[in-house]
TrEMBL record:
Assembly and oligomerization: Homotetramer.
Binding site for heme: 217
SUPFAM superfamilies linked to this entry: Indolic compounds 2,3-dioxygenase-like
Positions of substrate binding: 28-32, 90, 94, 231
Molecular-function GO term, any one: metal ion binding
Name under which the protein is recorded: Tryptophan 2,3-dioxygenase
GN (gene name): kynA
Domain of life the protein comes from: Bacteria
Keywords assigned by UniProt, alphabetized: Dioxygenase, Heme, Iron, Metal-binding, Oxidoreductase, Tryptophan catabolism
Catalytic activity: L-tryptophan + O2 = N-formyl-L-kynurenine
Cofactors that this protein relies on: heme
Recorded metabolic or biological pathway in which this protein acts: Amino-acid degradation; L-tryptophan degradation via kynurenine pathway; L-kynurenine from L-tryptophan: step 1/2
């Protein structure tokens, strides 16, 4: 066994195939591929974290979520590398991308669903692909990381409304007064609820860094394509600006006003 065999570098390093003769297309491909690799690890860690929360093994789940946070930091940093590309350099090969866009990132959509950003229409770009659309249908219907956290609050005898626990998980999560009151109880007496308090803060980290990733996507796109429309059919920056406001775990933000 050699270094290259173990890491399958023949496969990995022959998968960069620019469609133009422009120098900067390699940067564009490498940034996307490395992001997809990080997403692969995020999915793995999120699955473990969700299983940990579900099975009341909170300490390992916290460790998985801490790792997700450090990966998100890398993903946010990588916008700085892409920002070295100028509008003229990108325009040189943009036509070669055709109508492909980030809407077609399966791993990104699975992460969004696992974190609770449930928008069923986002499966449409995958309908021609039986394997991926089936996996996304399943992720849409399953409880998110936050649904698992709320079920844990209930198992710890915090009062959670029944309709929150038995909700249709395909629907976007709606903030609930009982969930807010439960988290508030945890945050007002951290020593008594130490592991739940840590879980709450890890979830805020993930939400915060997800928002930062979206924000940097939007600013990077603004400096590279200005206000051109997106290849995926949206208005471009205007659309990306709108999605920066998405909040995954609303009560964990709301309760901060009351502390
Ligand atoms: C020059 C670089 C980039 C430009 C100009 C760009 C532009 C855009 C635009 C305009 C959209 C909205 C869909 C559309 O109308 O096309 C979009 C969506 C998206 N992009 Fe990018 N992007 C860039 C780089 C990246 C990178 C490096 C990633 C990392 C994988 C990425 C991931 C995504 C994802 C996941 C979406 C869907 C977002 C959502 O629905 O919330 N993009 N991008
Ligand atoms: N939506 C981008 C194109 C784009 O960024 C893209 C195209 C192909 C593969 C990945 C891409 N990145 C994420 O949106 C654009 O409008 O220029």
């Amino acid at each position: 066994m050699s270094y290259g065999d173990y890491l399958q570098l023949d496969t990995l390093l022959t998968a960069q195939k620019p469609r133009s003769d422009k120098n900067d297309e390699l940067l564009f491909i490498v940034i996307h591929q490395s992001t997809e690799l990080w997403m692969k690890l995020v999915l793995h860690e999120l699955e473990l974290a969700m299983a940990g929360v579900r099975e009341d093994r909170l300490q390992p789940a916290l460790k998985n979520l801490a790792r997700v946070g450090r990966i998100q930091a890398q993903m946010i940093q990588s916008w700085d590398v892409l920002s070295t590309m100028t509008p003229a350099e990108y325009s040189g090969f943009r036509d070669a991308l055709g109508r492909s866009s980030g809407f077609q990132s399966f791993q990104n959509r699975r992460i969004e669903f696992m974190l609770g950003n449930k928008q069923a229409e986002m499966i449409e770009p995958f309908r021609h692909d039986a394997v991926r659309s089936t996996a996304l249908d399943a992720a849409l219907a399953a409880p998110s990381l936050y649904d698992e956290a709320i079920a844990l609050l209930a198992r710890r005898s915090l009062a959670i409304d029944a309709e929150v626990l038995t909700r249709d998980f395909r629907q976007p999560y709606q903030a609930s007064a009982s969930v807010r009151a439960a988290w508030l109880q945890v945050y007002r007496d951290p020593e008594h609820w130490w592991d739940l308090y840590q879980l709450g803060e890890k979830l805020v980290d993930v939400d915060d860094w997800f928002q930062q990733w979206r924000f940097r996507h939007m600013t990077t796109v603004k400096r590279i394509i200005g206000f051109k429309r997106g290849t995926g059919g949206t208005a471009g920056v205007g659309y990306l600006k709108k999605v920066t406001d998405i909040t995954l775990f609303p009560e964990l933000w709301d309760l901060r006003t009351e502390l």
